[in-house]
Specification:
Strand content: 15-25%
Largest sheet: 6 strands, mixed
Number of helices: 14
Radius of gyration: 27 Å
Number of strands: 13
Length: 360
Amino acid sequence: MRRILGIALAVLLLGGVVAVALAGGDKTPPTATKTVTVKGVIGSEKSEYFRDPDVVKALADKGYIVKTETSGSWAMDQLALKEFDFAFPSSSEPAPEIEAAAGVKGAQTTKPFFSPLVVIARSNAAKVLADNNLAKMTGKNSGTLLMGPYLKAAGEDRKWQQLSGSAAYAELTGTVFIKTTDPATSNSGALFLAATSNVANGNSVVSDQAAVDRTAPLMQKLISVQGVLEPSTDDPFRAFISGSGEPLILAYESQVASLLQQKQAPGDMVVLYPDTTVNSPHTFVPISENAKELGSLLANDPKLRELAVRHGFRPQNGVPEFTAATAAHAAYLNPELTGIRQVSAPTVKILMALAARAKG
């Protein structure tokens, strides 16, 4: 009799367990978010952003593991793009060529953040430029590069020794020039030509062959004087911060803002914003379905926007975010871009023609 009762009790208990499970009483955790690995080609100025452990975690929380390789933005269309899930050049101008080369023309691109170009200068160089009306200081570590007067001096092959007050600084020798990247492959170098050619063309976008012919001699002077051209802004910027390199270097504001927010010593640095500039909206081009939503996530996710600002980038419609995050470094930065004229870039065809002429 006891054996029969024991069996009956076991059956009842088993039935109870099944009933609870069927009623939704199973407390097993839900399946975790599916993770997809994507590979992208990016401009070098975004390398630290994607390597940041906090960015890696924020992306993983949304289901992405992102692996990246670097390339000059204007050279991305020459890569085997089918090997990548996305391309992320440093401005919108190369995007159509990348789309065409990848066979995804008409892809839904996004522009998560942008960064204006700046010229970083040694304090002695900035002082001499200001004393000779080629720049205007707004503080000890910030100012504006006056593009008209600067380009006039460049057109005349002006040397530092010809500028008033330069004799006090033995390191300022040779022709006055801004060290840029290769305008045929690198975004910053190309946009430097876009801005300078605009000023040289009577404050108008270069839009035809006649304007290319008119501005090309000055563009060639700006580039040929530099000697070997760098493929990206990363190496010249690091050289400047280490105390070497030229006294005037073209960089992205994001590189400066990131350095300051990470509390790294800026050294002897003055940040000059060109009074005419072309903004650089970093443009996300999805190539595979796996990366289709990643650009929107980078643009809109609050955590990823916050981390973009930490790395010096300006989120779209994010002036208040950038201003608040960089308030402690206002001595170097111009959050509102006050006094800066922002112009459009020429077409890719025109800009590449200018780059070819500039390189001789």
